Amino acid sequence: MTALEWLPTLRYLLLGAFPNGPLGGAALTVVLSVVSALLSAVVGLAGGVALALTRGGAYVVLLGIVAFFRAIPVLMLIFWTFFLMPMLLHIDVPGLVAVVCALSLIGGAYLSHAVHAGIVSVGAGQQQAALSLGLTRWQALRYVVLPQAVRIMLPSFVNQWVSLVKDTSLAYIVGVPEFTFLANQVNSRLMIYPAQIFVFVGIVYLVLCSALQWIASRVLLRERRAHATRIDAATETETETESGTVRDEQHGVAVR
What are phi and psi of 178, to 5 degrees? Predict the structure, then answer.
């Protein structure tokens, strides 16, 4: 096949039947990844904060729920959500929704431990200092602890999101026309170009994961620079205040 003959196939792999049909291929993989990443971040943040705030029996129950979702294979949870949710809710659940729910729950379970570890790593002294200033426990967590913990959590979030991008390839099992599903479809139709097709698939996944890592690295670098700038500004202010106090004391001594 010539390059021009490959163009319709590549377009089908990237966009599916869109705009004449539903979105599919690599574009649907990106949509699945973004939506699942955002939902898993919300679930992980809520779970991590709950682990940090709960004690006793509630903590054990919550820890058991998180461990349960971490222990389930992604493929099995996709099956459960696809076949059990219609039975429990008595509604038809599309395969796309089932996949998003499964990826969000498993990703959120892993991120819950990352958030909890980030909060713990900040140290109890920060929270105690905030409480001594009159803040409630929740306010101390929100305004003092979490902003510091985010920088610690971010690498774990990126690592989980990269895994999530690759896990979207399991959506083929419930008929969602994502990138890998369409690649298998094209390979079955052409039969004689499996190497070219799946090398292209690997390159696209590499580009997606590398782009995510690059964006996260830039965000983390910008945050570190902003944090360093704030520290330098605070140090200069403190130094100027101390110098002014010393001059005032010296001037007072000279007058006396």
Answer: -80, -170
